[in-house]
């Protein structure tokens, strides 16, 4: 059983060596954005990727394009992890766990805030990646709820807020020094999602639309 088909970004496929360089640039950029923020010099990203500055600009004409590709690639990988887990076992809650832990590994909390007023947050690629995440996670949560695995009073927005908060280092802590604790705390959160619920949650279920309007 697989998740319903979802929007896919249209990307022109370059030749193999160019594709490898592009992937190395995106991987290096993701690491450095997490470590230093979105304004790290592009020549430092090129150096970590093992390519020249011209190669970076050939693939990404400006910083906005590179940031956008990094964030889209992270959202795509988290979506694919959830889809793969659901297809492998049919266990919706296990697929939700896979999504949450993958999002923690990808440091999605450090990357998603980069899409702010300084960038085109309504770019079609970003919109498609966001819709895919919402659709897949929403479907998985719906199946888990129908199977009696997931408490009924949580929404996709609740999950996304918790993942962002729990995978973000606390004030005064080095960004990369808390990795050993992230999955422990994410699993505590996931255990709190299981049905039957042990308590009544204050407030209303949080949707992605609520987050967009906040």
TrEMBL record:
Any single Pfam family the record assigns to this protein: TetR_N
Domain HTH tetR-type: 19-78
Molecular function terms from GO: DNA-binding transcription factor activity; transcription cis-regulatory region binding
Organism field: Streptomyces griseoviridis
Region annotation Disordered: where it falls in the sequence: 1-22
Protein name as catalogued: TetR family transcriptional regulator
PANTHER family: HTH-TYPE TRANSCRIPTIONAL REGULATOR BETI, HTH-TYPE TRANSCRIPTIONAL REGULATOR RUTR
DNA-binding region: 41-60
Keyword annotations of the record: DNA-binding, Transcription, Transcription regulation
Keyword hit for Lyase: no
Keyword Transcription in record: yes
């Amino acid at each position: 059983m697989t998740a319903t088909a979802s929007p896919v970004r249209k990307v022109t496929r370059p030749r193999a060596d160019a594709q490898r360089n592009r992937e190395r640039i995106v991987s290096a950029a993701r690491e450095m954005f997490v470590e230093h923020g979105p304004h790290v010099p592009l020549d430092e990203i090129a150096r970590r990727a093992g390519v020249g500055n011209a190669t970076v600009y050939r693939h990404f004409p400006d910083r906005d394009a590179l940031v956008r590709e990094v964030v889209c690639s992270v959202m795509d990988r988290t979506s694919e992890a959830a889809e793969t887990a659901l297809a492998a076992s049919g266990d919706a809650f296990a697929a939700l766990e896979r999504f949450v832990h993958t999002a923690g590994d990808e440091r999605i909390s450090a990357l998603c805030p980069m899409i702010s007023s300084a960038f085109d947050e309504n770019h079609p690629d970003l919109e498609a990646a966001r819709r895919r995440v919402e659709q897949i996670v929403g479907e998985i949560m719906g199946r888990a709820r129908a199977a009696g695995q997931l408490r009924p009073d949580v929404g996709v927005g609740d999950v996304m807020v918790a993942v962002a908060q729990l995978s973000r280092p606390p004030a005064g802590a080095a960004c990369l020094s808390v990795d050993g604790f992230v999955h422990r705390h994410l699993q505590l959160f996931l255990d709190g999602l299981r049905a039957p619920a042990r308590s009544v949650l204050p407030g209303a279920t949080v949707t992605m639309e609520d987050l967009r309007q906040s």
